[in-house]
Structures are given as C-alpha cells and as structure tokens.
Specification:
By secondary structure, the chain is α/β, with parallel strands linked by helices.
C-alpha cells in the first residue's frame, strides 16, 4: 500500500473498531498536532478566549491551547476519575470557547454531565482520548458526547508497538452546529504536510536509538541522550522547548508510520482484553485495607492507579517495584507532566487545584499490558511488603 491507501485503511479500521464513519477520522504525526489544529480553528472562527482543562495532564495537552493563542483555565479533578468532573458555572465566563474532557489512563465512566455543561454554556467539547484509542465517552443511547475527539498512537500509549501517530475524530453534527468551525478544521487537516526527510529519519530510527540509549548508564546515558536530541538524531517524547509552552509545526503521518499503526490496530481487541483482565486482577487482589484505589470502574486502562497514604510511601513502592525491573509510571507527578519551566507561562496556580496537587504526589500507575502472571507478582510485591502499603485515604473531604 502507498501512503494514501494506508491512510484510508487506518481510517476504515478506526471506524470499524469504534462504530463510526471513516470519513470523520483525520490523521496527524502526533496527537498534540491534531489538538493544535483544532484549537487554532476555534480561535480563528470563534475568537480568542479561554479553554477549561485540568492540570492533571501532560504538558503536551496544554501546549496546543497556548500555541493557538487561547488561555487554559484549570479545573481541579474528581479524585474518583482523575479528571475534571462537571465544572462550576463560575469557571465559564463570556470568553470561554471550549472545554477538554480527558480520559486519564483510559478512565471514561459517565461524563454526560460535561456534555450538558458544554451545551449550557455553548462550548466546544474536545475529548482527550489519547489513553484509550477508539474508545469514546457516550450517552445512554450510545451517542458520542464530544464534538471533537483526539486519539494517540504515540509513545507509552495503548498501542505499544507504535511510537508516532495521532487521529482526530470530528463529529459530523458539528457541520450543522458550527459549519464555519467544521470547515476550518477539515481544511487544516487537509493542508498538513508529510514529515520532511529529517523527521522521517528520526521516526524510522527511533526504536534503534532508544534501545542504544537504554543500554547506557548514569550520567553518560543522560548526556548521550541530550546530545542525540540536539544533533537531530532522536525525536524525544517531549522536547525541552515544549516545557516552555511551545511545540513544532503540525505534520501528518507517512507510509512507514501508517504500516506500524495498522499492525497494532489489528491486535487492539486482544490488547484491550489483556488490559481488562489485569484491571480486574488489581481490583480483586489489591484489597482496600491496603490501598485507596482511585477508580472502581473496570475498564481496559492504560495503567491502574492506586494511592498511598503519603508521598514517601508511594516513593518506597516505586523504588521497590522498579528495582524488580517493572516499568511503573508516575502520571502525573509533577502536574503538567514532566513539569513546566515556568508556571506563569501556563497560567497555573497550584492553590486552585488542591486535589490534583495532592494525588499527583501519592499516586502510582501500575502496568496493565503484562501477562497475568507478572501482574500477580506485582501484587505480591505490594501486598507482602508492610512499608509501602497503608490504610486507604478518604478524599471525600477534599472534594
């Protein structure tokens, strides 16, 4: 297949997996690029203003708002879903243009209240589904809630065999709701250019370069990695300049990336089956007397979040598990991960999000893509150790 054929094959596969239509899917090199195009179109057609979002996220989910000339307004999270619940009305001012509905770690649950909030205040509802490719928040009639939904094939996402690529689904109802905005978004995606030869080289050699770097040790690893980034050899998950509110110009995919995406989409169902089995195992074996589990929802999560009584206990558990060779995520510690160089650039005030600030210091995210036998070992390491496990924490008073 050539590029056009493989792109169409991806759109058809995404549609089949999500019960949507292929023509409503649009590809990009990185999900953040797709988000930037969406927010730029919102600014162009609806005017400059604010976007309600959350600090419990990656910095690359906020940069698209900033580069579009919009202003992020941070709402604290609901501790049970690690994302924004229904915001208070005072968050929505006359200049508010959109609200982001993020599915942290793939936790979707019932988010119909956000759709109602968006309708009440005439906001564009942008769904951040980066952690749950092809899965959407839906109402009781199975209708998709979002106006625009952003999905990712990138590093450390659900598809472990892909490192690049994103897809944006545009609700066809937006064409009637806001035709100028709909046309502007479509136009921006149609005008995307393919990666230049330098980017194409970094994409193709990413696995090899990263494997070499991972075999190095200590300061030499860090210094060599920094050198490869500055020399234009390695395309990192997050560039240093992205911690200053910037990002590259958006690009689309190429044939090589498309082939990797198609390979992984073919096994997405089995991928989700494995993740769901591990989530159920964590639920059943990590007793509440040991942990305060963040969610009771049994969904095929990207990672399974648990809370510890103190940051120190979370650090102990992290050190213990990583010493056994397990890849344990600290999403999102710090907030706006991996942390901005300046809070003022991001207009973030930690005092406005006490729940997110607290949880980010005490959370560990356990892998869900391992064989069940390995998941059982992780559970044993946690439950057999007295030091890292503590009584559950009641977050209800902080809501």
């Amino acid at each position: 297949m050539n590029y056009e054929e493989s792109s169409e094959a991806i759109r058809k596969k995404l549609a089949a997996l999500s019960d949507t239509n292929a023509e409503d899917w649009h590809l990009c090199l990185k999900a953040r690029f797709g988000m930037a195009l969406v927010f730029e179109a919102i600014r162009d057609k609806l005017g400059a203003g604010e976007v309600i979002t959350t600090p419990y996220t990656c910095i690359t989910a906020i940069n698209p708002i900033l580069v579009a000339g919009l202003t992020p307004v941070y709402h604290d999270i609901d501790a049970s879903i690690l994302s924004t619940g229904k915001p208070d009305d005072h968050y929505c001012k006359g200049k508010t243009k959109a609200i982001v509905m993020q599915h942290t770690l793939g936790i979707i649950g019932d988010k119909s209240s956000i759709r109602k909030y968006a309708d009440k205040h005439k906001l564009i509802l942008v769904e951040d589904a980066a952690h749950c490719v092809t899965r959407f928040a839906r109402d009781k009639e199975n209708n998709i809630l979002a106006d625009i939904s952003v999905h990712s094939f990138g590093v450390e996402k659900v598809l472990t065999g892909t490192k690049f690529g994103g897809a944006v689904w545009i609700n066809p109802e937006l064409k009637t709701k806001s035709p100028a905005l709909y046309d502007a978004i479509i136009k921006k995606f149609n005008e995307l250019k393919s990666p230049d030869r330098h980017m194409a080289f970094r994409v193709r050699t990413y696995r090899l370069n990263n494997a070499i770097i991972q075999r190095l040790h200590g300061n030499f690893r860090r210094n060599f990695r920094s050198f490869t980034i500055k020399a234009g050899i390695l395309e990192p998950p997050i560039y240093p300049f992205e911690q200053d509110g910037q990002q590259d110009e958006p690009q689309t995919t190429n044939k090589y990336i498309n082939e990797r995406i198609l390979e992984q989409l073919k096994i997405l169902k089995s991928n989700y089956i494995r993740r769901n089995a591990n989530v159920e195992l964590y639920h059943s074996k990590l007793k509440s007397k040991h942990f305060s589990k963040v969610t009771k929802l049994q969904e095929p999560l990207l990672a399974f979040p648990i809370l510890f009584e103190t940051p120190e206990k979370a650090n102990e558990a992290y050190d213990m598990l990583t010493s056994q060779g397990y890849f344990i995520r600290r999403w999102y510690s710090p907030l706006l991960y991996p942390g901005p160089n300046s809070l003022s650039i991001y207009r973030y005030n930690p005092k406005k999000a006490p729940i997110a600030e607290d949880i980010s210091r005490r959370v560990l995210c356990l892998p869900t893509d391992l064989p069940v036998i390995e998941t059982s070992k992780i559970i044993s390491f946690l439950t057999d150790q007295k030091s890292p496990v503590e009584k559950p924490v009641d977050n209800s008073k902080k809501k």
